[in-house]
């Protein structure tokens, strides 16, 4: 959005940690007047040298622009930083990682103070920000009107994916993807643990094999989605649960033979066994999702 045909809109950013500073640089480089605030002011020095204006307090920074982005450590720090700020008429975009419940509560809090609110979940690490084709994007949820009005500014640092009016949805999507990544890293750790003691298996030669296998298996995600939407957990299954539970024994014995702990594998295997015991041997692993519901 531009204030007129020639000027870029001004933006305020609270928080100049690794991620906040990366966002700040892209807005400055795109020509947006940028007011910044950081709890530790010295951290703003490089950005001030690049053209940012440093505010003395968070409230002053908020007063400087209609669009206010916040990228702090956690939800509590957002509450602390904004405690004295006048949010009336502001477009508040919270890029701080939090839970869905925190996103919803923060939206209610901000709207109660007269702001439009958008929560963001950043799917990137700082070096990806502002780099075309890096794959960086941000999930946004909350005020659709804010998102539409501020698309221009929001799209500068990273891609934008709007996931709904529910302000908790950005965090929900963010955390769901991060949780999947956690499971993937857990598998990667176990795989390297199995091979690391072998003098003729180099980690660098093993790595591309692992990447290739994980990449080949990734589309399995679409099959799970089809199971959940159709309600038929057997549709298109090529490797069924009965076979996989049988194979788990081989995985566990190999870990033991290699002197590797099985603690990263056994929770998931236990759920597979429960689903099999419930009579679902002809499914894939989609049924495990049912067992996770609380
Ligand atoms: N860095 C990453 O890879 C991830 C990628 C995905 C998204 N996360 C989230 O982004 C938020 C900010 O992360 P960050 O990398 O910028 O974090 P830090 O470098 O640790 O900077 C933290 C900033 O928060 C300020 N801060 C901390 N506590 C308070 C407080 N009580 N009041 C006001 N500000 C506070 C801190 O200030 P200072 O220590 O410099 O004074 C930094 O500005 C985060 O939610 C990630 O989960 C990043």
TrEMBL record:
NADPH-dependent reductive aminase-like C-terminal domain: residues covered: 166-293
Taxonomic lineage: Bacteria, Bacillati, Actinomycetota, Actinomycetes, Streptosporangiales
Family of the protein in this entry: Belongs to the HIBADH-related family.
Keyword Oxidoreductase annotated: yes
Coiled coil found in the keyword field: no
Species annotation: Streptosporangium carneum
GO molecular function: NADP binding; oxidoreductase activity
Keywords: Oxidoreductase
Ranges of residues in domain 6-phosphogluconate dehydrogenase NADP-binding: 11-122
InterPro entries: 6PGD_dom2, 6PGDH_NADP-bd, HIBADH-related, HIBADH-related_NP60_sf, NAD(P)-bd_dom_sf, RedAm-like_C
Protein name according to UniProt: Dehydrogenase
PANTHER family assigned to the protein according to its UniProt record, in alphabetical order: CYTOKINE-LIKE NUCLEAR FACTOR N-PAC, OXIDOREDUCTASE GLYR1-RELATED
